[in-house]
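Email to the structure team, subject: small monomeric GTPase model.

Hi all, the expression group asked for a predicted structure before they design truncation constructs. Nothing fancy, just the tokens so they can compare against earlier work. One-line instruction: predict small monomeric GTPase, return tokens.
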Amino acid sequence: MSKKKGLSKRECATARSTKAHTVSLEPSGKATNGGAGNGGHDRLDRSALNNSNEFYDVACKVMLVGDSGVGKTCLLVRFKDGAFLSGSFISTVGIDFRNKVVAVDDAKVKLQIWDTAGQERFRSVTHAYYRDAHALLLLYDITNRPSFENIRAWLTEIHEYAQQNVVIMLLGNKGDMTAERAVKKDEGERLAKEYGIPFMETSAKTGLNVELAFTAIAKELKHRVEKQPNDAKFRIQDYINSEKKKKSTCCG
Ligand SMILES: Nc1nc2c(ncn2[C@@H]2O[C@H](COP(=O)(O)OP(=O)(O)OP(=O)(O)O)[C@@H](O)[C@H]2O)c(=O)[nH]1
Ligand SMILES: [Mg+2]
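Reply from the structure team: attached below.
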């Protein structure tokens, strides 16, 4: 029994025809993931099966990218499990993914989050996955200046390999390490503004803005999929700013 439906290359997969439904993602991409390795496809197949009890309306692929050590894996673990991976740093080998369904307004958005290896030697593996991504979270480490200086190169790579309309968000991670800060917050803001992408500082350690980053992405993608011609445009940076404001007024 197959419940799988194909994914449009440009849009998230949607299903709205039945009340209770599950749409499994097409095994990454037979059709759309070109040169990606089979390992990823096999894992994706199994995951779709394991999650068949989870209902969702929209399914999207999100990729975490950025230099090695900036905290991509930790950010994903914080979001998925609410935990922080402290201790010795285990660099990701190749690529892996985790699924999480988030509630956005009246809909459930399934985020399939791909955690990539930042090390240069895995770059060609990562490139093959870009074109299926609906959103990219691009991270640097606020205590590591070179990781920030490499952001322009990452953006060039993204523009080369990803879909033209991919949602990009810049994240300055390790926001808890203020004593070791090597990149000012307004430098991150300025760079993001220059490229017209949303920005915030995060911390996988404390959880600062982690939920917000993924929820904002889910909201943006859901709006894109379900947008009616007369709907007001969803502005992701405005949403982030208003959520931050709400938090600061409610919780000091
Ligand atoms: N203080 C602090 N440490 C962090 C944070 N995020 C990650 N780290 C630490 O930074 C190191 C690298 O984190 P990872 O998440 O493994 O880095 P990565 O970007 O996945 O690295 P690659 O897999 O090599 O690409 C680990 O020792 C983490 O404990 C954070 O927000 N704050
Ligand atoms: Mg990693």
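The beta strands are 13-14, 58-66, 95-104, 107-116, 135-141, 167-173, 199-201. Residues 68-74, 85-86, 89, 91-92, 117-119, 173-174, 176-177, 203-205 surround guanosine-5'-triphosphate (ligand 1) (CB under 6 Å). Ping us if the truncation boundaries need rechecking.
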